[in-house]
Amino acid sequence: MAQQTDIRAGGASSRPTAHDTSVLDNAVWTALDGPHAHLAERVGQAARYPADVYAFAALADPGAPAAWADLHTLVGPGTTVRVKPVETVPEGWDIVGGGVGVQLVDTALRAEPDSEAVRLGPDDVPEILDLVARTHPGPFLKRTIALGTYLGIRDQGRLIALAGERLRPPGWTEISAVCTDPEYRGRGLATRLVRAVAAGIRERGDTPFLHAAADNTTAIRLYESIGFTQRRRSPVLLVRSPGTFREATAL
């Protein structure tokens, strides 16, 4: 989830293309069942991203016992896994942690390329992981970069700001990993990168959206100030599957 962003208000363009918002209700599933199907590890009505890409699993219908049975088969007994949006779990499953997230959608964001933004690739991952470790924008793993386009801004060769793409439900792309080196905050770098990433998303016909922790009110206010609108709040749970306990190093 997005945290410690450095976003400053600017102008706003016309409204983005309208897409079906219902796919955002279960965005991890609709991404894994759609544009990110090539990344999915799946059993029936349950799927997850590879452990080094994004540490979430999803259910086609969180209220269906068969979907939970498929998730159990997928992850194995006594395994911890993150799921959303899930409020209750079947008998035998344990809730071992969690929180609440806020989903925001682009309604008036000014999207535009940035001449200083450079595309980041696998060779840049060590630098990305270093910046993420110092700024805590949310999960970024060794192969998270496989989810989409990531852009950065450098100062004398040093990576100082980052933003990129994560979930891709049909018609939508999530902007994620928005962060700025603490020494460079207050210069609007994150705003520029959000707009640049959004420009690429809009160019292929998708609409940007993003997530933030519900208690990260500063980030939420800043995202709203540049053209995002809160759509929904939903729980994020860390659950343990029935069976012999096994801490999942992958998830």
Describe this structure in words.
- With 251 residues, the chain is of the alpha+beta class.
- It has five helices and eleven strands, in the order αβββαβββαβββαβαβ.
- It has helices spanning 27-32, 65-75, 125-135, 189-203, 217-225, and strands at residues 41-43, 46-48, 57-59, 80-83, 94-106, 118-119, 150-155, 158-165, 172-180, 207-213, 228-240.
- It starts with 26 loop residues before the first helix and ends in an 11-residue tail after the last strand.
- Residues 1-15 and 246-251 have low confidence and may be disordered.
Shape: globular
The largest sheet, given as strand count, sense and whether it forms a barrel, is:
8 strands, mixed
Strand order of the largest sheet: 4-11-5-10-9-8-7-6
Encode the helix/strand succession as letters: HEEEHEEEHEEEHEHE
β-sheet strand percentage: 25-35%
Tell me roughly what share of residues is in helical segments: 10-25%
User: How many angstroms separate the termini?
Assistant: 16 Å
Instruction: Output mean pLDDT.
Output: 91
The helix-and-strand class reads alpha+beta
Radius of gyration: 18 Å
Low-confidence stretches: 1-15, 246-251
Q: Give the total of beta strands.
A: 11
Q: Figure out the total of helices.
A: 5
